[in-house]
């Protein structure tokens, strides 16, 4: 690792981490691989054999395989996994060149782990210290995320991949089956026609993230038109359905799921994580009745968002087509509901402070009239349709 010995750490903390910290022994990782833990990454050097002095708790290990210079030297897509480490833990993995992945099966071999523990002093010069300077940031981004929640959301394969491993929904093993599919060697007259010609894909079993499913219909079966309208304005029914199905015993674990999705996006480069974060946030911010009923959930939400929004440029949230900021409109609903009748006084004051903080830091206007934002009419080139 480059500059791995330049970490400025309090001597008492360093000694405690040296004695109690966990160790990741990662053997055979090719030079040039981009590897990181939590909020920091490095390029692996020729002497690298792992990471030491890791604080006990939940961590996110991530890496990108590097092609040989003769093959262009590009960095591959990112792979990551959540790990929970105990004091003095030793986790052992070897690089699998065929899969371009870490194989942790050696960690199940107690004899091998004992051998590594006995030779840890010899390995020490090859182990980079945990980047202690990012520990505070990491904890602030994951303080609501437990090992149980992370394990329940992580793919069954144990790997979180920036690019989904997908396969065709239809396995066309016979020539007859393939002949019945739409031909794709002729010009398309519309976007829909082009999309219809593409094979439908699905994630390979065991590789998909297991996020809570947010119901498309945000109202109960048999609802009247008036009830449907009400449930669209106040999405508490849908939020309660998500909590009941996924986090009934620990409703605050929904904040852990929000943090899991954000980390998958921010560090793991998983776009699906960002989409789920947006959907979950919109559901929480537009649930007026739940805000009156679940004070602790919403106090926690403000804390989670405070740290998350400090990690992304405010320009990121602006749609390049409409120039609208989805986050300001979502939070506008949140602040409006938080100032309404029946909301706990502590929550109302915390929301007001958070609104003032965001207005000052990002110059976002939460008091603008959204109805003034007329839809943008886009002229399509002649002959192109969107049917």
UniProtKB/TrEMBL annotation:
Residues 20-155 form the AAR2 N-terminal domain. GO terms for cellular component: spliceosomal complex. The keyword Lipid biosynthesis does not apply. Gene3D superfamilies: 2.60.34.20, Aar2, C-terminal domain-like. The keyword Phosphoprotein does not apply. InterPro entries: AAR2, AAR2_C, AAR2_C_sf, Aar2_N, AAR2_N_sf. Interacts with PRPF8 (via RNase H homology domain). Component of a U5 snRNP complex that contains PRPF8. Component of the U5 snRNP complex that is required for spliceosome assembly and for pre-mRNA splicing. This is Protein AAR2 homolog. The lineage of its organism: Eukaryota, Metazoa, Chordata, Craniata, Vertebrata.
């Amino acid at each position: 690792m480059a500059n791995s010995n330049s970490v400025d750490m309090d001597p008492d903390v360093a000694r405690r981490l040296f004695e109690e910290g966990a160790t990741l022994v990662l053997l055979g990782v090719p030079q040039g691989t981009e590897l990181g833990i939590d909020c920091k990454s490095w390029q692996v050097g020729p002497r690298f054999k792992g990471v030491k002095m890791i604080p006990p708790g939940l961590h996110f290990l991530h890496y990108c395989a590097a092609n040989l210079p003769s093959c262009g030297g590009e960095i591959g897509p990112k792979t990551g996994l959540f790990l929970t480490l105990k004091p003095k833990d030793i986790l052992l993995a070897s690089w699998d060149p065929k899969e371009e992945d870490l194989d942790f099966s050696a960690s199940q071999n107690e004899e091998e782990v004992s051998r590594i523990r006995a030779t840890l002093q010899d390995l020490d010069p090859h182990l980079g210290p945990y980047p202690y300077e990012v520990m505070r940031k990491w904890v602030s981004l994951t303080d609501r995320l437990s090992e149980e929640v992370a394990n329940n959301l992580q793919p069954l394969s144990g790997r979180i991949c920036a690019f989904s491993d997908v396969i065709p929904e239809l396995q066309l093993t016979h020539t007859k089956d393939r002949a019945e599919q739409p031909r794709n060697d002729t010009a398309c007259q519309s976007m829909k026609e082009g999309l219809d010609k593409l094979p439908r894909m699905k994630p390979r079993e065991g590789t998909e993230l297991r996020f809570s499913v947010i119901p498309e219909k945000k109202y109960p079966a048999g609802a009247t038109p008036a009830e449907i309208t009400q449930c669209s304005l106040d999405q508490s029914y849908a939020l309660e359905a998500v909590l009941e199905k996924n986090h009934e015993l620990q409703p605050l674990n929904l904040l852990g799921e929000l943090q899991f999705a954000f980390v998958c996006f921010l560090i793991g480069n998983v776009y699906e994580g960002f989409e789920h974060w947006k959907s979950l946030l919109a559901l929480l911010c537009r649930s007026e009745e739940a805000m009156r009923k679940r004070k602790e959930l919403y106090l926690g939400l403000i804390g989670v968002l405070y740290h998350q929004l400090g990690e992304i440029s405010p320009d990121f949230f602006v749609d390049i087509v409409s120039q609208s900021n989805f986050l300001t409109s979502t939070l506008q609903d949140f602040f409006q509901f938080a100032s309404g009748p029946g909301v706990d006084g502590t929550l109302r004051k915390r929301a007001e402070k958070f609104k003032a903080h965001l207005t000052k830091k990002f110059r976002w206007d939460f008091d603008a009239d959204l109805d003034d934002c007329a839809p943008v009419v886009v002229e399509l080139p002649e002959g192109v349709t969107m049917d």
